[in-house]
Amino acid sequence: MKSWRGRIESDVQAVNNYPIYDIEINKFDDLSLVEDIFIKRVGGNTMIALEYAFLKALATKDDKEIWQLINNNLRNPRFPMPVGNAIGGGAHSNGKKPDFQEFHFIPEAGSFEDAVKINKRARENCKTILKNLDSGFKEKTNDENAWQTTFDNEQVIEIMQDVKENMIDEFGCKMHIGIDVAASEFFSNKNKNYTYKNKKENLKRQEQINKIIKIANEIFYIEDPLEQDDFSGFSEIKNKTKSLIVGDDLTATNYNRITAACKKSSINAVIIKPNQIGSLMEVKKIVWFCMENKIKTIFSHRSGETSEDILADLAFGFQADFIKTGICGKGRDEKLNRMIEIERSLG
Question: For the whole model, what pTM was predicted?
């Protein structure tokens, strides 16, 4: 990955050339010292890695968990609900595919650990159904480890509904369905159309809005339903549905874009990707703003993630409403397992 200010090699050199042992970190907010020193020296990827390293060192020194450095006064802690990508499409998949990028299960279970188990079971149910119904299904996964199918959006949503009911019957818990439309990926700035390749149709802006509103009755969580600069369109969808309307491309873990989305009533939930903004102090600022304005927070990994598991500590420490890390696989299991470890440690 390229850093935001040049190549990683130059970032590493900048860190190595600084007397880093002179920086004294005693609490989470002291990370502002690190940011003040390195903000003009390194890019976002290096900055966030450096902050993670400082947090881990401080946790070791103080014999604490990383989440305790963020919030050590949790009286009634709650765990985020896992948002699990079971079937994929869009830019993350190949060949004939649904145009929406992700199709999620979001269980409300008695524990985070149970929710993870339910998502894994739901994912296997999806595989079984796709094997039986989709003649083009080859039991392959995309780069998010979600099943690839030749079905269109509506067919996939129907499968998700069937599996949802199966899970409710089997586990006796609440179960929700979510989608990441990732509409910017199939929006044409030139023609101002949304081009659905699977069904070979082009929708104007209002037609896209109407389409999303129509399917919202059966979808709990709708991420990026329109292209990334259509704040007013997001607002129309939010005001005409009961779904969570989630900003990701719209907000880009950027405080100014999130405040703008809030002011325009565009969203009621937001994706937070710490390694997108490259600053844990900015993450804290965003979380506080969201809490004050009753915007749900979803701590999320990114495509091509490593096996680093600190996202779980951040999500729990900041008391996020959801954590989006996929259902299983390398780079995903580690984060889910870390959250389970935290849950078990608290009894």
Answer: 0.96
Three-state SS for 155?
Answer: helix
At 177 the three-state DSSP class reads strand
Q: What is the pLDDT of residues 164-214, one digit of tens each?
A: 999 999 999 999 999 999 999 999 999 999 999 999 999 999 999 999 999
| Residue type at position 35 | E
Catalytic residue numbers read 144, 273
For residue 74, pLDDT over 90 is answered with no
**Residue 18: both structure tokens together:** 């600084």
Rounded Cα gap, residues 17 and 277, in angstroms: 24
Q: Which domains does the chain have, with CATH numbers?
A: 8-64 (no CATH), 81-345 (3.20.20.120)
Measured distance CA(278)–CA(283) in Å, rounded: 9
- Torsion sign (Cα): 74, 78, 80, 82: positive
CA distance 272 to 27: 22
